[in-house]
Amino acid sequence: MSKGILYDATKCIGCRQCEQACATENGLPYDDKIAAQEFTSAHKYTAILTKDDKFMRRLCMNCDDPACASVCPVGAMKKTALGPVTYDKSKCMGCRYCMAACPFSVPKYEWEKAVPGVRKCIMCSKRVAEGKQTACAEICPTGATKFGDRDALLEEAKKRVHDNPNTYLHHIFGEEEVGGTSVMLLSSVPFHLFGYPTNLTDRALPMYTYQVLSRIPDFVPLFGTMLGGIYWITHRRQDVAEAEAKEKEAKGGAR
Amino acid sequence: MTVPRMRFTFWKAVFLVIMVAGIYSSYIRFFHGLGASTNLSDQFPWGLWIGFDVMCGVMLAAGGFTLTAAVEIFNIKRFHSIVRPTILTAFLGYLLVCAALMYDLGLPWNIWHPLVMRNPHSVMFEVAYCVMLYTTVLALEFSPIVLEHFHLHKALKIIRSVMVVFVILGVLLSTLHQSSLGTLYLIMPNKLHPFWYSPLLPVFFFLSAISVGLAMTIFESSMSSKYFGRELELPILQDLGRVLVVVLALYGILKFEDFYHRGILNLVFKSSYEQRFFLLEILLSVLIPLGMLLVPKIRESAQGLYLAAVLCLLGFVTNRLNVAITGVETAVGGRYAPKWTEVVITAMFVALGFAIFGLAAKYLPIFPEEKGHIPALRSSEAVASEMAVPVHAGD
């Protein structure tokens, strides 16, 4: 059963305890200065954004079919069966294709380090594997961030929108975006106000490259044969000419 | 006599300055990290080193596979005399791309990881394998030049007997990874501007690689004739110019059809940041060179061919930089310009390319013997004795 997170912005009070708990869980520094940064970075995996009296959370969406895992040449990024998209620095070679490919620009880089790695929310993969909630969901005092089975959370989100049609946007962000994400968002104001992209397709992004890549195994023998065939045909005349020359030479030698 | 000598010293000085600055920049890169040496950021994880050193580097080295395919596979013999310089350029180009990649990778000592940690769903994985294998193929295609120089005729014979396999493999691998550099961007439909994001990206990258392969060969031959005092093979370059016309026309028509079917032709006439870069690219890469080369007088003159080729090269370099940088700027909400250290290191690789090409051309048999041109240096006796060796070896 795939797990997920439902963030309901209408229930969020902007206390930033999720930020604090996330920092503690991942061994990241956290103080007032970092709390004031309303963006994610290599040392801040989740951030609460404020706009007037509205809040929004940014974190890795942990896509169902993540672009980052699909593009990683060495498989350092992985989608686990439980939902989290994890990162293994020991495999990474630092090409940063994951950062370029992510539709939400989630993965961040340790630019200042001589031995850098990619940093992002990994949906507390260890805790989740142990059957626990993510740190952010556990600490949330209002239930704005809720952890559970993705299917159950989606049903609940739909019910909330259905029961309060005037409160919520009729859009569960993450239900369909890029093929669905483990993290889903509810809000009363448009998501693009907080930097979420609005031009996303409902198709899983890895399909865009896979539909080309998957043809390569068929292409190689066909194209190889074609090149070999052209060579064979274009060099036929030359072979004939050489053979004839040799014959003449042989005759000449015999004489 | 004094004028070329002066010029030689001037370029030597330029080379030296670039190398010193390059070594200092390398120190910053490897001891203080990417943050200190580049303007890369979480918004722009890829910059000049990927956009120019890798994307343009691979593209500019496309002459190798274009010309080997023409001569070895299609058996167009009149291009034979210019194959070697293009193989040298390609081999050098790929070695420099690999070296530049070591600068851009965050953990360059892990560059071998794709060998054992495979993700066949990754375009980058496919490109890594193709580039690795093709660089090996280029080394083998280049080897006869070295073997000839050291008169290793037995090894030469063995290599030549299996060369056709490597030639076919080389063309196949090049077709795959030249187009795959475009496929890399197919996963960014919401990030890359519609001028450059197209389902046909791999096809555009492949066709432009062939155009650049031809243009680069014209450029290279013109430069060689200027700086190595070689006779210009004008009739050959005129033929290349004709082929270039056809490939550019195909590229241009496909670009138009693609824009038409995606309904973005109107964007071309609407002023925007991207529009200016797109117009620059399409004018330099296709429209102006095509217009020039369609005029027989220009196409048949050495200067006209050279100018059209240079514009075409600049145009497709702009194209790659647009795909890698300009095209994503609006989506990620920012502008990127390289730091001086990034520029210096890129300049270092370009300078190394020119310098090593010059050295190889001086010491290795890159250019064919010119009839009645340099016989003073290489006596007919020496040539004859060389010719005689294989006969003895065959006894």
What distinguishing features does this structure have?
heterodimer, A: alpha+beta, 10 helices, B: 395 residues, mainly alpha, globular
Description of the structure:
The complex is a heterodimer of chains A (255) and B (395). By secondary structure, chain A is α+β, with helices and mostly antiparallel strands. Chain A contains ten helices and nine strands. In chain A, the strands form four sheets. Chain A has a three-stranded mixed β-sheet. In chain A, strands 2-3 form a two-stranded antiparallel ribbon. In chain A, a hairpin with a 5-residue loop joins strand 4 (77-79) and strand 5 (85-87). Chain A is elongated. With 395 residues, chain B is mainly α. Helices cover 76% and strands 0% of the residues of chain B.
Chain-wise SSE layout:
The complex is a heterodimer of chains A (255) and B (395).
Chain A (H helix, E strand, L loop, with lengths): L2 E6 L8 H10 L5 H5 L10 E5 L2 E5 L8 H5 L5 E3 L5 E3 L9 H5 L6 E2 L8 E2 L5 H5 L5 H5 L5 E5 H14 L19 E4 L19 H8 L2 H19 L1 H19 L1
Parallel strand pairs in A: 1-9
Antiparallel strand pairs in A: 1-8, 2-3, 4-5, 6-7
Chain B lengths: L1 H36 L10 H13 L2 H11 L9 H22 L8 H4 L6 H27 L3 H31 L17 H27 L6 H28 L3 H4 L4 H21 L2 H5 L1 H31 L7 H24 L16 H15 L1
Query: How do the strands of the widest beta sheet of chain A line up side by side?
Result: 8-1-9
Report the count of strand segments of chain A.
9
Assembly form of the protein: heterodimer
Strand content of chain A: 5-15%
Largest interface, by Cβ-Cβ below 8 angstroms: which chains and how many residues each?
A-B, 54 and 57 residues
Summary, kept brief:
Chain A is an alpha+beta fold and 255 residues long.
